[in-house]
């Protein structure tokens, strides 16, 4: 095939892929179009890969297809094996692998150009290589730490030590100096080794002080980092579709990060400098926890309360994911609707362990999209609702965010669950949430505690409702 024609075909394929990426990401913004958006994005990636493979430079097609088969097999196996409750850590791994890919590509391109006497590395290429390596390295190790925290392999609390922030600042300055020398003298490998090593170390040091309450922010921020790293790698390779796709992921990730921070009433800087619950002040901020009087409700009584209601709002949280109760919750929803009881789901932006976690779980259980209502659109309805069922959510319904200036979550927008006529909280125990503080709602006069595993208790409650 004529080289000019091949180039035109590749550029047109990249253009189509870029448009599909944009459309796909746009559709991901709405629950009812998210699946189609995911398909569009997958098709775009397939087109981009095929177009890229038309240019055979380093590897043979045999080597390329063998690696594709291995990668596809691993991806298929992991996707089928992973539980929905493990989706947050899976997303963390994806972010990390994206960063690692950028590091490997940028490093190999540097090595090729720096050690070829016939190639002079332009300054702009050196700059993009350095940025790709730094951001990719931070993304990789940071994501691995986030994965470890989410999977319970690393302590999920904020891990801090004396002089942590000054140490990070010193390492960053050393890395910056090494980066400048690398751009000016690309033939000296010691500068690249220093940049790579410090980048990997900084990824660990910047994520370990972040607590579990901030994980949704961390996940979306690392997702943005992986996109930015891919974008710079696109400049290194002069690959337009990689630049566009990376820029889209980077921009959408940082926008989502800002939305998460706004939902928690926290700045991104405060998140990166350390998460909730680092010291003993959190418990003190809650105030009066030991004097709280709670009222417990049994399964039969709870079923009677639901049976006599005309409207119900369900607030899902990470506890629902842990108990894998989403399917029985959907069954209860259908049962209540047969009794002409209105049922809606109130979704807080940071409920769970990653952005959109509750939407994913409920969609997996085939809960209709139109029942998933965002916080700002449903908060006014709680005051006119007969029953609010809270399943494993804690900090996102804690009235301390409105009433207690000493609380670490004060000012955080929450769901107005406490304003419902009756609030039933399904929890295993009185344990605090990720913020490490007691939930004042548990002691409210309209609150009833339904203790036990969410799946088991709701299953029993469904059985009682069927008999009524």
Automatic annotation (TrEMBL):
Signal peptide: none annotated. One of its GO terms (molecular function) is proton-translocating NAD(P)+ transhydrogenase activity. GO terms for cellular component: plasma membrane. It is found in: Cell inner membrane. It catalyses: NAD(+) + NADPH + H(+)(in) = NADH + NADP(+) + H(+)(out). The lineage of its organism: Bacteria, Pseudomonadati, Bacteroidota, Cytophagia, Cytophagales. The transhydrogenation between NADH and NADP is coupled to respiration and ATP hydrolysis and functions as a proton pump across the membrane. It comes from Adhaeribacter rhizoryzae. The chain crosses the membrane at residues 6-25, 37-55, 61-79, 91-111, 123-147, 167-184, 190-210, 217-236, 242-261. Residues 11-462 form the NADP transhydrogenase beta-like domain. Keywords: Cell inner membrane, Cell membrane, Membrane, NAD, NADP, Translocase, Transmembrane, Transmembrane helix. Its EC number is 7.1.1.1. This is NAD(P) transhydrogenase subunit beta. Belongs to the PNT beta subunit family. It is a multi-pass membrane protein. Pfam families: PNTB.
């Amino acid at each position: 095939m004529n080289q000019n024609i091949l180039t035109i075909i590749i550029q047109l394929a990249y253009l189509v892929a870029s448009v599909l990426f944009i459309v796909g990401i746009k559709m991901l913004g709405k629950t009812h179009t998210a699946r189609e958006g995911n398909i569009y994005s997958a098709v775009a990636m397939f087109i981009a890969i095929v177009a890229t493979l038309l240019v055979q430079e380093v590897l043979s097609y045999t080597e390329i297809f063998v690696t594709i088969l291995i990668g596809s097999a691993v991806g298929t196996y992991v996707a089928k094996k992973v539980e929905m409750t493990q989706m947050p850590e899976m997303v963390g791994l994806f972010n990390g692998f994206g960063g690692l890919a950028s590091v490997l590509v940028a490093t190999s391109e540097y090595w090729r150009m720096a050690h070829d006497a016939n190639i002079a590395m332009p300054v702009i290429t050196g700059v993009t290589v350095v940025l790709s390596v730094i951001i990719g390295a931070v993304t990789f190790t940071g994501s691995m730490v986030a994965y470890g925290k989410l999977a319970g392999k690393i302590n999920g609390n904020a891990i801090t030590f004396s002089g942590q922030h000054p140490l990070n600042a010193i390492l960053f300055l050393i890395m910056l100096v090494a980066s400048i020398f690398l751009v000016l003298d690309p033939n000296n490998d010691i500068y690249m080794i220093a940049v790579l090593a410090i980048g990997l170390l900084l990824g660990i040091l910047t994520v370990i002080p972040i607590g579990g309450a901030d994980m949704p922010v961390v996940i979306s921020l690392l997702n943005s980092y992986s996109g930015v790293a891919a974008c710079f790698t696109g400049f290194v390779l002069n690959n337009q579709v990689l630049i566009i796709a990376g820029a889209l992921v980077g921009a959408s990730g940082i926008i989502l990060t800002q939305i998460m921070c706004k939902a928690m009433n926290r700045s991104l800087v405060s998140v990166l400098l350390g998460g909730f619950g680092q010291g003993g002040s959190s418990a003190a901020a809650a105030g009066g926890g030991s004097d709280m009087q709670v009222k417990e409700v049994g399964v039969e009584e709870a079923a009677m309360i639901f049976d006599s209601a005309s409207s119900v709002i369900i607030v899902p949280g990470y506890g629902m994911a842990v108990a894998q109760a989403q399917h029985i919750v959907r069954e209860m929803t259908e049962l209540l609707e047969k009794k002409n009881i209105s049922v809606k789901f109130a979704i807080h932006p940071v409920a769970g362990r990653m952005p959109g976690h509750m939407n994913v779980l409920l969609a997996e259980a085939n809960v209709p999209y139109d029942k998933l209502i965002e916080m700002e659109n449903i908060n006014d309805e709680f005051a006119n609702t007969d029953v609010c069922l809270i399943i494993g959510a804690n900090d996102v319904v804690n009235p301390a965010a409105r009433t207690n200036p000493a609380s670490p979550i004060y000012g955080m927008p929450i769901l107005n669950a406490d304003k419902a006529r009756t609030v039933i909280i399904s929890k295993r125990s009185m344990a605090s949430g990720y913020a490490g503080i007691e939930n004042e709602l548990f002691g409210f006069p309209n609150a009833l505690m339904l203790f036990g595993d969410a799946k088991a208790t709701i299953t029993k409650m469904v059985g009682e409702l069927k008999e009524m």
